[in-house]
Structures are given as structure tokens and as C-alpha cells.
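Need Paraoxonase's 3D structure for a figure. Predict it.
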Amino acid sequence: MPSSTRLSVWVALTAVLVWCYLNIATILEATAGRITIDQVRLRRWENLPDVANGACVVDTVANACEDVNIHAASSTAFLACGDPAGRVQWFPSSGYQPSTNRPTFREQFFKYDLKTQTRTELKLDLGSLLPEDHDIVTHGLDIYPGKDDSQILVFAVNHARDGDAILIFEHTLGTDVLQLVREVRNPAIKCANSVAAVSPRSFYITNDHYYPRGILRQLEDRFGPWSWATSVQYCSVEGDNVVCKEVSETMPCANGLAVSDNLVFAGDSKNGSVTVYEMENGKPDQLRLVRVVDVGAIADNIKILAGTEDPLVTVFPDGEELPLFLSNVSALGQTVFAPTAVLRLRKDRDFEPELLLRDNGAQLTDMTAADIDPKTRTLVGASFLKYGGFAVCKLPDSVDLS
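Structure prediction for Paraoxonase:
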């Protein structure tokens, strides 16, 4: 081949490679399902004044509380908490998965009595189901009625280094013990984020990534978000078997999850939306899409307001700079602040978002979950990386909870 021809070939090849490099986003969108999300749309609640945060007290003992659920009958908040320093070493949903010589990770669960304003660390009784040195790394949490009014079940996501699982505990109200009754594992429970109980032995989960770890996970994070990456799974325990089934459309980053009667609410933290599903004929493994609600911000955990059954969505109104927060966990709420807000999606207004609370980050920085007890007019907000991991806020009369 003449040298001039070879040069032309190299020039053409170089031009193609340069074009591919400059247009990689377009190529990925066209061929691999990558999507572009309008970031301006996710700033609907940015630069607003604080709302209803004037009577908040930060608990300084429980740290890194990613999720909270209030047991309405007893006005008791249950929290899944942890270790900010440990989460920098190992917390899969945030991409922190380095190797470590740490013998075990042992995070905590707490309860907070809203009537007596008393916090209690809950002791874990693992029985013979798990070894005492088994990793406990908390994330999503839900509660479900027990066999009588004196008991509840606590469903909790656990990120053990040998794989994700849902832990089901029994708890007798008034005690300080969580007794493990089942560890639920299945290949479909791979990047678990939230859990929502449907019965004593069935639940929904969201996976917030497609690949749990490794180079494919790095590529997923580096080049996403992807339209096919995440979804809602329905899992049921049948004797020794665990059966899981994908029951939702795929979405870029499924996160928060809640169940109210026959409705299922699934949040997407990349797309800033909450998708409403209905169980067809009351069957939890058959969901019908009702509508998609644009909440105008990164959406995290979802709770149900007792009495109205309206969803409560915790959002990041100014976005979430996760790498910055992971590098500065000791400074969160001190010199590094992440504004947060709680939205109520009103059923009587076709799930229109309504701002209930906003904080500039001084008290509720990087808040990932919030639940409300209408009887005591108290909001409990939780932050998954912060030292001083939850705050208790008395809501003013101006906040409508009816």
C-alpha cells in the first residue's frame, strides 16, 4: 500500500475515533440505553427559605441513620443507623467498596419514643441464624404488624460483604431487643436500597444499581444513568425457598419505596420522580402503572403519612454532592451543608407535591429519610452519613397534616 494511501487511512481512522470520543454520549444513548436527565428540572425547590424547621433537635448519639419508620400506634420511631467512618470503607450503594482488613462491620438500630423523647439502642439477637461476627451494614427499613398488638416485624436491608440480604426481625414493643427470624437471600436482591413489607414473609425491594461490584459496576457509574439499570422486585418466602419477580418497569435509579393499601410508590433518585403503581386485583406480584409524578428534585426515601396515607418524599433540593460528603463526613452539618426538604404528595390533588419542611442543612444535612407522627406533630429526619444521625422536629400548627 502506498504511503499516501496509508496516511489517508490513518487520517480517516483518527477522524472516526475523534468523532466517537466527542459523541460518546450520543452513541451510548442510541445503542446502550443511556439517558440524559434535565438537571434544571431537578432544582424546583432550590434557593427557597427554610420552612417548619424552627424546633428541631439533633440526636448526637446515633450516627449515620439512613432510614426511619414511625410506628403510629406507639408513636415510636425506628431507625437504621451506622458508622460514618465505616461507610467510607464499605457502603455499596454509594460506590464505596474497597478491600478492607476490618474483621466485621456492626452497625446499629435505634428506637426513639416520641412521647417520652427517649432514645434506645436495640440489641440484636441473631440466634443461630447468623454468626455473631456477621456484617451488619444497615440501609432501608420498614415495619409491619406482628402476631398481636404487642409485636411488630422489622424488615431491614443488610449490606454484608458476602452479599445483600433482607433481615426480618421480631420486636416486642417496650423491649430493647430485635430477634432475627429470617435472613432472606436471592440473586434478585443484589443492590438493595429500600424495602417495603407486604406480609410477614413478603416484601418489595428496590435495587439501585444493576451490577453489584467490579469493573461493570464502575462502568455503570461512570457512563450512566441507564434506562434499564434498576427496578422494583417482589419477593416472597415460601418455606425454604425465596421467589423474587421484577414487577415494575426499569428506571435509572430506583430508590425510595412505600406501600399504602393497594398502592406502591417507587422513587427514582436520578430522574427526580415517584412512580405510582396499583396492585391488580390486590395481587402484589402484579403491578399496574398509575402515573409518574415529577417531584422536581433528587428523590430518596418515601414514607406514608398516617391518617391520610399520603406519600412523604425526602428530596435534595440543591442536588447531592456525594463524593464531597463521603470525603468530609466529620464536617457534615458543621462546615459542609446539604439542604434538604420533605414533600407531601397529596392524593386529593392527584399527587401534587406540597412542601412541608425545608432546612438549609444546618440541622438536617444530607437527609435521606423523614417520617411524621401526626399525634405528636413530630417529624423525625435521618441522615445516612452524618455524625448526629437524626433530628426530631416539632412541626408548627401552620403545617397541615390532615
